[in-house]
Amino acid sequence: MRHRMKLGAVSYLNALPLVHYLAERPRLAPPAALDRLLRIGEVELATAPVVTLCENPSWKVVPGIAIATRSTAKSVRLIFKKQGITLGDLRSISLDLESKTSNLLLKVLLHYKYRRRLEDIHFYYPLPSSDADAALFIGDKALKEEYRSLEGLDLGGEWTSWTGLPFVFAAWIGSAPEISEKQVQILREARDRALKNLGELAKQQSVLPELEAKRYLSENISYEFKGAEIEGLQRFCAYAHELGLIQNDFQLSFYLK
Q1: Which of 30, 99, 129, 190 has a beta carbon 3.0–4.6 Å from 124's, enabling a disulfide?
Q2: In what order do the strands lie in the sheet with 76-80?
């Protein structure tokens, strides 16, 4: 590689197949923080949340690789904190401080799928509230047994059942104008090697029991970024833009194109 890029990655189990076999160890951070690290040049390429692309239209994406779901994600959940509360009558939600994309996905689903007026719901952010009717949890927090046993909604499943499309949470996003074909190849080979060895990865993590971790990485999370994923991302960004949640028209630009 002609240039060792400064990499960043989300510090969640779902990113493990993208980074485990990389010789260059990424700087780990929550999704919302990766956007800032890209802006200030602390990292040049990161598994950043896809909303980052809407806020930085000149940034590009490594083709073919994403953190997505084609069914239930398991690690992006809205938890009802009060008994008997439903999406039809909740009045307040604590959003996740570490999230950007999932917070917007929740609002898109509330407005378009469940026909809720967002003005009728108080969103606590960045500070949560113990009095909120529900709370959004993403990443490894959402996989904790204490939350999985509570009544709630899986946002990945809500999206895919509604649209019939995958949902893309993150991708390799870069602030550099160009990267080499070799660099892209290294990222793809690391992903492909991991997907062939998910059992080994599951043994080395401590977030979930081994067999459950393997199922999560193989069944709930997808690491492809192809036609259906691109269509799903474009659909989501169009909804978010129409709602005024993002200001820029969405432009998806790939490296090596």
Answers
A1: 129
A2: 122-124, 92-94, 134-138, 76-80, 152-154
Model confidence band, residue 170 (pLDDT cutoffs 50, 70, 90): very high
Element (H, E) at 173: strand 167-174
pLDDT digits (tens, 9 = 90+) for 204-242: 999 999 999 999 999 999 999 999 999 999 999 999 999
Which position has the token pair 């459950």? Answer: 212
Q: Is 149 exposed, middle or buried (0-12, 13-18, 19+ CB in 10 A)?
A: exposed
pTM for the structure as a whole:
0.94
pLDDT of 250 higher than 90: no
Please, are residues 96 and 136 in contact by the beta-carbon 8 Å criterion?
yes
Q: How far is CA 193 from the centre of its chain?
A: 21
What are residue 141's phi and psi, to 5 degrees? -60, -45
Contact 169, 102 (CB under 8 A): yes
Picking from 37-41, 103-107, 228-232, which range would have the lowest pLDDT averaged per residue?
A: 37-41
Question: What per-residue string of b and e applies to 202-224 under the rule 16 or more CB within 10 Å gives b?
Answer: beebebbeeeebbebbeebbbbb
Helix-strand-coil percent breakdown of the chain, rounded to 5? 40, 20, 40
Q: Is 115 exposed, middle or buried (0-12, 13-18, 19+ CB in 10 A)?
A: exposed
List the structure tokens of 221. 């999370």
* 172 Cβ neighbours under 8 A, 6+ residues apart: 18, 45, 46, 47, 61, 62, 65, 187
| Position 2 confidence tier, pLDDT thresholds 50, 70, 90 | very low
Backbone region of residue 240 per phi and psi (left: phi > 0; alpha: psi in -120 to 50; beta: other values): alpha
